[in-house]
Amino acid sequence: MIAERRALLQERVTQAFIDDYGTEPALLVAAPGRVNLIGEHTDYNDGFVLPCAIDYETMVAIGPGSGSQVDVIACDFDSDRDSFDLHAVFAKQAEEWKNHVRGIAASLTDKGVTLNGANIAVAGNVPQGAGLSSSASLGVALAKAFTELNQVGALNETELALTAQHSENHYVGCACGIMDQLVSARAERGAALQIDCRSLTTKAVPIAEDLAIMVIHSGVQRGLVDSAYNERRVQCEAAAAHYGVAALRDVTIAQLEVEKSGLDDLSYRRARHVVTENTRTLAAAEALKAGDLAMLAKLMTESHASMRDDFEITVPSIDRLVEIGAELLGETGGIRMTGGGFGGCVVAIAPKSQVAALEVWVNEHYQTPDGGQARFILCAPSSGVSVLSDGAAH
């Protein structure tokens, strides 16, 4: 199934490239989406996260262009096209996908990388609007494609991720942390990736073969994410300033309580989510490694409650979906909202033997706002960005 999905995507993006540019692409690059198991809104607070890459990806076909001109075709947007000159000042476009492409080129130029013109086709199968980070996979794939085409050997996977984050922050306009890009660049197959978002060090946390990762879409499209995300970031920075630290990662749970005098209740609750979420994330990595599903379930339940009550990024449909899933799973698996919030998906980790029962149970007890059924996406923990050759990563 995974190989078939990749083959279909490869065929689609290659054919689009040939149809548009009349030649085969020089190379194909694929970068995965991700699901975050625990550690929400901690990354831009220099904290800890535990995502894993998934077997849904964005693929970029690229070949040499003429001069300093970049031509792009977006297969997933009705073959919409964009053209820009690498020497021109970045100009924001109405269509967001164009800003991602232009932003990556500008970010590489900001780093002193010399780029030549390119022809590009882009296609992906990361579900849109689900909080599975299709934008980060696009950014990482483009950064890798540009650097490979121009034979820039100096950028490692972490630097590719930082380039993609810079593009999001400075050109696309979302103040995201590093998690999405770093896991898309550096993930290891069969494992989650524990990331220290300050040092950018990573540690693979194996996921047992008999465990399934299920993403369940609530049917609520995520809304107002960028503005709310940026607002939360400002609130967290204000709380960090109150505690006299560089980032909320530096605040202990004891300090959170002792030094809260003078901090408004909203900022305090935002800080409490981040401080306690960091503790939960480190504990969850240990529980996952030990196969302690009861502890993992407990930590994921607490994480969801914190996102709901302290960080206020869930919506009623998401809360209901988590509640229903937890009723069936109990201590045999964990379930929580995943992603930036305000709709989108929940993530569940449970034995593969529970997958069918969970899907039936959710369909019996949950309806999407438009009266339909939740969409289940079964994910395999996958590896990070890769250059493809004859369909195989290397």
UniProtKB/TrEMBL annotation:
Residues 99-185 form the GHMP kinase N-terminal domain. Pfam families: GalKase_gal_bdg (PF10509), GHMP_kinases_C (PF08544), GHMP_kinases_N (PF00288). Residues 284-359 form the GHMP kinase C-terminal domain. Its EC number is 2.7.1.6. The keyword Nucleus does not apply. Keywords: ATP-binding, Carbohydrate metabolism, Galactose metabolism, Kinase, Nucleotide-binding, Transferase. Residues 15-64 form the Galactokinase N-terminal domain. InterPro entries: Galactokinase, Galactokinase_CS, GalKase_N, GHMP_kinase_C_dom, GHMP_kinase_C_sf, GHMP_kinase_N_dom, GHMP_knse_ATP-bd_CS, Mevalonate/galactokinase. Belongs to the GHMP kinase family. GalK subfamily. PANTHER family: GALACTOKINASE-RELATED, MEVALONATE KINASE/GALACTOKINASE. This is Galactokinase.
